[in-house]
Amino acid sequence: MKTVASIYVGLDDYPYQKNIEYLHNLSNIGIKRIFISAHMPEVKDTFLEELIGLIDEANKLNMEIILDISKPSLEKIGIIGNIYSLRLDWGFSNDDIIELSNYPFLLELNASTITQSALEDLKSRGLDFNKLRVSHNFYPKPYTGLSYEAVLEKNKLFRSYGMHIMIYIPSSVGKRPPLYEGLPTIEEHRNLDLDSILADMTLLDVDEVCFGDAYASNEELEAAINFDLEIINIPIYIYDSICDTEKEILNKIHRNRADQSIYFIRSSHREINEITPFNTINRSKYSITIDNREFLRYQGEVAIMRMDLEKDHRVNVVGKALISDFLLQNMKPRQKFRFRIRGTINE
Fold this sequence. Notes:
- By secondary structure, the chain is of the alpha/beta class.
- It is built from ten helices and 15 strands.
- The chain has an eight-stranded parallel β-barrel with strand order 1-2-3-4-5-6-7-8, surrounded by four helices.
- β3, α3 (71-77) and β4 form a beta-alpha-beta unit.
- The chain is elongated, with a radius of gyration of 23 Å.
């Protein structure tokens, strides 16, 4: 899965020289594709000059530019050369798409709004779909982002046409104006831990994630670059009095069983070191549990609750998972995962 970063041009929050420095930083850590919006109403008069300068610098670094544009903005500034793809945000007809397909760059359709009938029309008119890719919208205003189900349904459609798919995720460090409330495609991602957001990608069938916000931190960028679809990270809080054996168990790599339980994600770890009963309280949804010695040969088995369950004197509640309900309910059988401790819960 490729990682893309955003740079915003012509805004007070993003001085030109700082954008150039960020561009070089992105190149140094391995980011090779950049998203730039060319139709923000808040831009200054220096926008076009800064845009051309940034694209020229990116080309010197062998970086690719996704230029996001609306029909009115394209009519105003014209075709910009030396870009990887032109993202057609809004205002474009299928006739426009056919005409623009004659240029050497790719065309990036708005995945959140394009319809199957529009795709069928383009196909019937002989458009080479190798010239097309899609990316979803991002949503600056809270509670306007898409649902998991809407994104997944769209992505299944695009896969049937063999199209490359990109989705936007927020930064928790740099927030873009004017609202500074994150730029996710999926609403639930707006304030979710980055590891949880990335873990969701195992279920959403995307090829690229783009930090909609700027400036994303190096830590965030590197987490996305190094994300492994085979072993996902699950951020957790743990109770501060759990025993060393339980901590060791939580630090192991786990695997969701193939024969899944509807009640919890289940990792069939077994432990020979004794685990004494501790914090055998009611198991709420998202609770992480480890079976104690009273569960006999199941001692050491780890679970993440998919629903509320009653307390059991054989089951220690050791922490809480900070993941989406979407991942909790839909984690794939045999999916490997590891826990990442974010803090402690005081008893």
